[in-house]
Structure formats: structure tokens, C-alpha cells
Design brief:
With 160 residues, the protein is α+β, with helices and mostly antiparallel strands. It has a domain of 84 residues. Helices cover 35% and strands 16% of the residues. It is built from five helices and six strands; from the N terminus they run ββαββααββαα. The chain has a four-stranded antiparallel β-sheet with strand order 3-4-5-6, with no helix packed on it. The N terminus is likely disordered.
């Protein structure tokens, strides 16, 4: 709706004042407009994943200055080793796998973790900030395999 205002010889058109919306209604209208714009846009194609880099181990300096060599052990199934721990809390499996990858701290080789006492001892030695850093590094450098990472599989179908 437009209102025409005349003064003298010139005329100007001004829009009628819109009804005031509450803050919640105004925010809701903004969100709906944004969702409508995003819905109309074409989704971006997912970028091709970078090829896996075959990293054996990494050396990193922790925030407290200690140097840790970190990487999955060769020829050892971490999944099977963790499965042999008695009374393993399910939420601790990933953390224990990360701690099993600590090879050395300040050049001193770490002995294999054989039970939860060894795990707790190493966790206390490293501290929470170091464990968080190592867990992030573990998932970044050694992510789980996905079907796209596997070689071509030949399916042998049953003949019936």
C-alpha cells in the first residue's frame, strides 16, 4: 500500500509503515527467508578426498615440551589387543587404541599396554591435553577405511 504526499508542486511517494513484528517473529522471518534461499541454490559437489598417505609414525612436541613418537604398531591388531582386555568399558576402546600408538616419550620407548593399569599409567604420564592432541592426530592421519578406499571387489553371484 502506498501513500502519496503532496506539498506544493512536487509529489513524493512514501511506503506505508509496515506493522511492527515482535523480535521472535522477525527472527523467524529471517530464518525462513535464509532457508528459502539455500533451498533454491544448487548443493556444492563434495570434493574428492585426498589419497591416503601411508604414514608410519610422527614425532611431535607436546605443549609441555616433551617429544612423543606416535603411530600404530607394525604387525599388531589394535582391535584384537583391546578386545583381550578384561572389563573394558566400551567408551574407552578408542582412547586405549590411541594410547597403544604411543611409541616413545622423550626418546624413551614405551612398553606395550597389556592391561588397564598400564593404560591408566600412560594416560597419567601424558595428561589430558596431550591425549586430546594425540586422539585428534590419530583420526586425522589414520582414519578408518571406507568402501571407497577399498580396491575393486569382484562379486561372485550364485547360480540357481
Amino acid at each position: 500500500m502506498e501513500v502519496t504526499v503532496r506539498s506544493g508542486t512536487a509529489s513524493a511517494q512514501t511506503p506505508a509503515p509496515e506493522p511492527k513484528l515482535s523480535a521472535v517473529a522477525a527472527r523467524r522471518a529471517q530464518m525462513q527467508a535464509k532457508a528459502a534461499r539455500e533451498h533454491q541454490e544448487e548443493p556444492e559437489a563434495m570434493p574428492e578426498a585426498a589419497p591416503r598417505e601411508d604414514v608410519e609414525s610422527v614425532e611431535l612436541s607436546l605443549p609441555d615440551g616433551r617429544v612423543v613418537e606416535f603411530g600404530p604398531p607394525n604387525g599388531v591388531s589394535l582391535t584384537l589387543r583391546v578386545a583381550t582386555f578384561p572389563d573394558m568399558p566400551p567408551r574407552a576402546v578408542g582412547l586405549v587404541q590411541v594410547l597403544m600408538c604411543v611409541r616413545s616419550i622423550d626418546g624413551q620407548a614405551q612398553r606395550p599396554l597389556n592391561n588397564m593399569v598400564d593404560v591408566q599409567k600412560l594416560a597419567n604420564t601424558l595428561g589430558d591435553p596431550a591425549i586430546d592432541l594425540l586422539a585428534t592426530l590419530y583420526t586425522e592421519l589414520w582414519p578408518p577405511l571406507s568402501p571407497s578406499d577399498l580396491p575393486t571387489i569382484k562379486k561372485n553371484l550364485r547360480r540357481g
